[in-house]
């Protein structure tokens, strides 16, 4: 006998539906869910190899305190006690949670409630800060809310899809498959890829613009001016629904053509793009980490949004700016407010009415009153001793944070570190005073939200090994042991019901995020919940698929804001460190490989860490194909990786993937090279613009 369970892939933000089939003998196979509206049965290489990653090697099976296996009661009492003592002695801002876009919404909800409503600090941030914080900040500046206006279907309906800083072919593969299929069906559809690298995604492009690192604001500012010249503005939309157009144009003019040269693109290349954009009504501009992971990431997001507002191409079928989220549940984390500068249900922590509303809803004794520390600042506070108790869940900051060596040293020196993780031996778990075993994909129950605002269930089909338990349970147990009421959840369904109720609480349309149609959902309906896009407001039978076609933004005057931008690309290289290092993903691995590394098939795609280097640079440095190369940054630190000579990379630029860690023949913990430079608004680190030098090892 075989039984089938419908669930959702745990990797990227596409959020594909997966059918897991489990035999009586316990063998698992997976296939794409033909009924899921994100993927309609498709899976990429990572998703289709999920069954190969379910082995128990390396799993955390029982709580461990100071290296010794113990009981849950002892571990939880210790965590609650140490957090209470620390808060009593040093105040609520002396503790912090560092979460993950891998967590389910229910986990995130409980963590956010505990920290912001009961401990009384907003020191809760997440690796989503590294993924899409600039998009959040850009959305909020332009729209007054963190709203993704469109849907995946828009990519298929568009006549022009512009992909900015996105290797969609490898990082959002099923969405890329949908786009490629739509283009095959309608060959007149055009695709423009704007990316310093010529990636696998560029193979689909009618036009690839190998933009200079961080040249995007200059390019989209010039596009705004070109749209005026081409008489492609939607003046009615601008007049009725926006503010700040004249200032944005004036800033673009001031920025001038001098900066256009900083795009690294020829006049002809830029004009070809501007004509295509101007002459095509149905345009979707997708952007991802190449835009977000930058010291000017928020401005890049707004430069793109400016052009869509100016043409009124937003919220209509086949039109709009579209943020592609990296992680499976970065969106769900945003919805519960799981970032240091957010509240809950898309409310704003700086807004006293919102704080008071959430306080009443939670019956919270100690609402946080100000934003907490964003990821980079949080680890800085760990390093200088301001944070004395840290709980890390489902992420590996020793590898993934910029300034990774300093982050590692900070965690090592922190007086009390708790790690909740599936794996017992990650670079971060090794440093924990208390390791709490977490159940993982296939064992957990909850929800995730994908890049198009679609909420889907993750359903269990395996028994967790040892005594592993879900992350929400870890936190609810600690909260109860700290004496807090309101955490006696017995299932994720109860948490989701409360989250849905909060989304509609005193929400008369003032807030975009509203799933109150599911407030009070019972266990049976939660089990049966089909994928749905928000909003789904209580009492409304019709759902809104897209936002902003007719304006109605979420600033107080319901108008969008153009943002005046004069942000020049930063120049960080010098004679000593003349090369710009870009970091990113490969097709078949995920983050620090704790799951994908278990699949021999996935590991065979690219077997070891490498540096992409242009043959001309390689020749100048005496580097031959497959040589070991030492790459050092001005910031300090060095990695050793294999040379991959390719003209997909422009001279002066390098690329190294982010996944590998450890001290093998190749040492590739690349975030040790990356300085903690962040976007001033979003706090997102600049992971794609690191000055380095390279030599044959
Ligand atoms: Fe999973 Fe993303 Fe691949 Fe879909 S595209 S199967 S969500 S990794």
UniProtKB/TrEMBL annotation:
Q: Where is the 4Fe-4S Mo/W bis-MGD-type domain?
A: 2-58
UniProt keyword terms in alphabetical order = 4Fe-4S, Iron, Iron-sulfur, Metal-binding, Molybdenum, Nitrate assimilation, Oxidoreductase
Keyword Iron-sulfur part of the UniProt annotation: yes
Segments forming a coiled coil:
none
Highest rank taxon of the organism? Bacteria
List required co-factors: Mo-bis(molybdopterin guanine dinucleotide); [4Fe-4S] cluster
Q: Which family is this protein grouped under?
A: Belongs to the prokaryotic molybdopterin-containing oxidoreductase family. NasA/NapA/NarB subfamily.
Q: What is this protein called?
A: Assimilatory nitrate reductase catalytic subunit
Q: Give the source species.
A: Rhizobium paknamense
């Amino acid at each position: 006998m075989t039984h089938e369970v419908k669930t959702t892939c745990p990797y990227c933000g596409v959020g594909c539906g997966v059918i897991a089939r489990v035999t009586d003998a316990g063998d698992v196979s997976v296939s794409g869910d033909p009924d899921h509206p994100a993927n309609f049965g498709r899976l990429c290489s990572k998703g289709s190899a999920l069954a190969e990653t379910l082995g128990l090697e390396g799993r955390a099976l029982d709580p461990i305190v100071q290296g010794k296996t113990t009981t849950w009661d002892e571990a939880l009492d210790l965590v609650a006690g140490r957090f209470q003592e620390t808060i009593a002695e040093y105040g609520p801002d002396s503790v912090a949670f560092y979460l993950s876009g891998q967590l389910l919404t229910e986990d995130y909800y409980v963590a956010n409630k505990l920290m912001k409503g009961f401990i009384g600090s907003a020191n809760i941030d997440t690796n989503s800060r590294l993924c899409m914080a600039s998009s959040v900040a850009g959305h909020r500046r332009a729209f007054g809310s963190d709203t993704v206006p469109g849907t995946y279907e828009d990519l298929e309906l568009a006549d022009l899809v512009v992909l900015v800083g996105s290797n969609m072919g490898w990082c959002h593969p099923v969405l890329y498959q949908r786009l490629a299929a739509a283009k095959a069906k309608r060959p007149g559809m055009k695709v423009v890829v704007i990316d310093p690298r010529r990636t696998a995604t560029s193979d689909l492009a009618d036009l690839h613009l190998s933009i200079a690192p961080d040249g995007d604001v200059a390019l989209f500012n010039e596009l705004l001016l070109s749209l005026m010249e081409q008489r492609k503005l939607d003046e009615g939309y601008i007049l009725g629904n926006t503010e700040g157009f004249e200032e944005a144009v004036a800033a673009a003019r001031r920025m001038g053509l001098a900066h256009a040269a900083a795009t690294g693109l020829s006049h002809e290349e830029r004009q070809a793009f501007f004509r295509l954009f101007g002459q095509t009504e149905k345009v979707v501009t997708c952007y991802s980490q190449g835009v977000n992971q930058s010291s000017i990431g928020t401005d890049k997001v707004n430069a793109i949004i400016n052009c869509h507002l100016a043409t009124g191409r937003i919220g209509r079928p086949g039109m709009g700016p579209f943020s592609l989220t990296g992680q499976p549940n970065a969106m769900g984390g945003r919805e519960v407010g799981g970032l240091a500068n957010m509240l809950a249900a898309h409310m704003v922590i700086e807004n006293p009415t919102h704080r008071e509303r959430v306080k009443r809803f939670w019956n919270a004794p100690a609402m946080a009153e100000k934003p907490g520390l964003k990821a980079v600042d949080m680890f800085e506070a760990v390093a200088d001793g301001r944070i004395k108790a840290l709980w890390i869940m489902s992420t590996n900051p020793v590898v993934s944070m910029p300034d990774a060596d300093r982050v590692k040293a900070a965690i090592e020196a922190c007086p009390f570190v708790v790690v909740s993780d599936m794996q017992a031996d990650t670079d971060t778990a090794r440093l924990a005073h208390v390791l709490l075993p977490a159940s993982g994909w296939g064992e957990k129950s909850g929800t995730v939200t994908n890049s198009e605002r679609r909420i889907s269930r993750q359903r269990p089909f395996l028994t967790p090994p040892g005594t592993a338990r879900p992350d929400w349970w870890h936190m609810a147990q600690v909260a109860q042991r700290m004496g807090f009421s309101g955490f006696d959840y017995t299932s994720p369904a109860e948490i989701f019901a409360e989250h849905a109720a909060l989304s509609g609480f005193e929400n008369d349309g003032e807030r975009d995020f509203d799933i109150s149609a599911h407030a009070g959902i019972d266990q049976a309906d939660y089990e049966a919940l089909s994928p749905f896009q928000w909003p789904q407001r209580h009492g409304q039978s019709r759902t809104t698929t897209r936002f902003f076609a007719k304006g109605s933004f979420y600033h107080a005057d319901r108008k969008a804001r153009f943002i005046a931008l004069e942000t020049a690309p930063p120049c960080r290289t010098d004679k000593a460190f003349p090369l710009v290092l870009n970091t990113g993903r490969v097709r078949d691995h995920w983050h620090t490989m704790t799951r994908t590394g278990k699949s021999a098939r996935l590991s065979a795609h690219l077997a070891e860490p490498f540096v992409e280097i242009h043959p001309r640079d390689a020749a100048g440095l005496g580097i031959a194909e497959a040589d070991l190369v030492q790459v050092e940054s001005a910031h300090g630190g060095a990695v050793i990786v294999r040379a991959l000579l390719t003209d997909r990379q422009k001279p002066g630029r390098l690329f190294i993937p982010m996944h590998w860690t450890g001290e093998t023949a190749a040492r590739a913990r690349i975030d040790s090279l990356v300085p903690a430079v962040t976007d001033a608004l979003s706090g997102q680190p600049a992971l794609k613009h690191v000055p380095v030098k390279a030599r044959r090892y």
